[in-house]
Amino acid sequence: MIKKDDSNQGIEEDWTKVFYHIYKDGGLLNLPRLCYARKSWTLKQIHLHFFDLVRDVLGRWLKEIKDEGSSLKCKSQNPFKNKKGETLTYDMYQSMDIQELYDCFFPSLSEDNWQEKLSRSRWDLAEMPYQLRIENTSGYAQDCHFCNQHSCRQHCPLPHTDSMTLLDMLHKVGVEDNVSFYQSRAGKSDVILNLVWHKDFDKSFQRHLSAVQDGKRLVDQDG
Questions:
Q1: 216 in a domain, yes or no?
Q2: Does any domain span residue 218?
Q3: Domain range holding 138?
Q4: Which distant-in-sequence residues (6+ apart) come within 8 Å of 170 by Cβ?
Q5: In a domain, 119, yes or no
Q6: How many folded domains does the chain comprise?
Q7: Cβ contacts of residue 203 below 8 Å, gap of 6+?
Q8: pLDDT, tens digit, 9 for 90 and up, residues 142-169
Q9: Is 2 within the bounds of a domain?
Q10: What is the DSSP letter of 143?
C-alpha cells in the first residue's frame, strides 16, 4: 500500500521522477512529460534512456518513408546511416537493439565533444535528430546550477558522460529527489530535462505522443 507522504508512488528510492519538456524552434510542443530514472545511472545512460522513450517517433518516420517512398514529417531526406555506411531503413530499425540504433542517430556524439555539439542552436540533421538539455532553474540573475555560467538562460547541454550520474545532478540543486513539483517551489529544486528536436522535423510528426484515443470496452469472454 502506498503511503500518503510517499512522493515516489511506492517505487524504490533509487528511482526518481524526471520531468521533461519537448521543444522545437524555441517553442514548447506539449505539456511537461514524466518518466522515472535510476539516480545511479550515468548521464550517458540517461541519454540512452530518453532515446528509448522517443525512438518510436523516428521509427514511424522511417516506416512512412518505406510505405510511401517519402515523408512529410521531415523537410530533409533521411541522412542516418548504419555502421556499413548504408542509409538506415525501417527494416534495419526493426532489427537493431537500442544501443545500435542510438549509434546510428548520434554517430559522432562523444564524451569529448558533447558540450560543443549540444550547445548549438543549429546543427546538421545527420549529427543527431534532437539535443537533450538540462533546464536552468537557478532563478533570475543567478549562475546556472549545472554549467555555472551567468549567461545560461533557458537550458544548457546535458553532459554525455559516464563520469557523472543523475544523482550528481540532483546534488547540484541541493536535493536527493525530484519532488518540488509537488511542493510550493513548482520544479525550482528539480532536475528538469528539455528535448529539442531538429528544425527540419515538422511540428506534427510527434503528434501521436500527445494523442488520446477512445478506449475499447473489454468484454468478459465467459459472459
A1: no
A2: no
A3: 15-204
A4: 16, 39, 176, 177, 178, 191
A5: yes
A6: 1
A7: 24, 25, 29
A8: 666 656 676 666 678 899 999 999 999 8
A9: no
A10: -
